[in-house]
Amino acid sequence: MFESFQNSLQSALKSLAGKGKLTEANMREGLKLVENSLLEADVSYAVVKDFMASISERALGEKVLLALRPTDQLVGIVRDELINILGPVDPSLHLKANGPTILMLCGLQGSGKTTTCGKLSRLLLNEKQKPFLVAADLQRPAAIEQLHVIGRQLNVRVYSELGAQDPVKVCQDGVRKAKEAGCNVVILDTAGRLAIDKELMDQLIRIDNRVQPDQAYLVVDGMTGQDAVNSAKAFNEALELDGVIMTKLDGDARGGALMSVKQVTGVPIKFLGTGEQLDALEPFRPEGVVGRILGLGDMVGLVDVIKSKVDAEEQKKLQDRLQAGQFTLDDVRKQLMMARSPGLIQKMMMMMPGMGEISKMLQDSNAEKGIGQQIGIIDSMTPAERRNPKIITPARRNRIAKGAGVQAPMVNEVIKMFDIMGPMAKGMAGGNMGTAMKAIEQ
Ligand code: GDP
């Protein structure tokens, strides 16, 4: 995410790094480079102009900090201003204590509305809420089935009406059904169009007036750059938006649309969509995003990612087995499966300070392939071998290697990993992991 923005800004700042002392001339040069990076990153011209005016004023006025290198000083100013523009943050869904909270998602076709309905439902399920989905996208026939597929995947109820013509009625009926089913959050998946048109806006305004959603969120595709800004403007003028969810920030999105959309709508950016899977939704925190853009890392985000992948119940079971002296290679396999979640390794690397560059060199697929082979090795063992790897003789080792399609020394590595992980996991189960995470969080 934001890689090209990050790259152009970092190389711009690098060219300043050689200059030991801050002068008005090199600060101006640095500011010009920042301006170009922003434009290249798809931030709209008007927003760049405003942004540059505010950082120039600060940068050129801050001559007192002569002790700092110009790059450091400029990075500091750019960071503060970016955080300023992207905030304030409000990732809350403002759920009501009584009665269902109605969330309406709107946006152009293909922006990721239906997928985001699923992502929000997953998030709500994790928070022990009871989401309910309403298929009100009557424009795109496949959308209804797509929502049902997501609903089945998450075990969340989906309301749709066969052959329905009126999305307002579908939404009203859906809200009633949700109440009957005892669900407390209703998510309306509304229709999109390939481009803004009056009919679409009228339909959304009718739903807004008659169903009165508590929160109306615009879903925008972060890959579309300037178009995202234009559609955000149109939606914001037609509806009273409460927030924006920007999707597809995992691909080649240049990230600049975040700044522009925030500027033109003035409403909080709630979440970022970072993948097609239903767990690829991050609460928006400007500090984290800006830290990543400037290569300063995002420790809070990192802790969130780790936490979201560590199943508390599984960890408890592991702890119990460890205490009973029952840690086996099956447990190692479970940990490996967790580490193999798509993109996890790269995601973690991108969030660590200074690791952005390295993570690009270290192809994610290679690391994931290695984990896949290790899982294959464990799968080729007999249950007895997994319980007690000490019984693995050279003949058994060759059999396992053959079964997994790897060289025999790799089998040894997995056994060695088991020897190391046992005591380490014991430490984690004893609470060290929690302490370690706390230390990072602070
Ligand atoms: P809708 O027409 O607005 O309902 O859009 P969909 O939910 O059908 O999404 C359109 C396409 O974008 C689908 O192929 C989704 O899998 C994909 N998509 C949605 N969100 C994201 C995201 O955050 N990242 C990526 N890479 N793809 C996404």
UniProtKB/TrEMBL annotation:
Places the protein is found: Cytoplasm
GO cellular component labels: signal recognition particle
One GO MF term: GTPase activity
Gene3D superfamilies tied to this protein: P-loop containing nucleotide triphosphate hydrolases, Signal recognition particle SRP54, nucleotide-binding domain, Signal recognition particle, SRP54 subunit, M-domain
InterPro entries cross-referenced by the UniProt entry: AAA+_ATPase (IPR003593), P-loop_NTPase (IPR027417), Signal_recog_part_SRP54_M_sf (IPR036891), Signal_recog_particl_SRP54_hlx (IPR013822), Signal_recog_particle_SRP54_M (IPR004125), SRP (IPR004780), SRP/SRP_N (IPR036225), SRP54 (IPR022941)
SMART domains given in the database record: AAA (SM00382), SRP54 (SM00962), SRP54_N (SM00963)
PROSITE patterns the record matches: SRP54 (PS00300)
Keywords, ordered alphabetically: Cytoplasm, GTP-binding, Hydrolase, Nucleotide-binding, Ribonucleoprotein, RNA-binding, Signal recognition particle
Enzyme Commission designation: 3.6.5.4
Family: Belongs to the GTP-binding SRP family. SRP54 subfamily.
The protein, known as: signal-recognition-particle GTPase
Organism: Anatilimnocola aggregata
Encoding gene (name): ffh
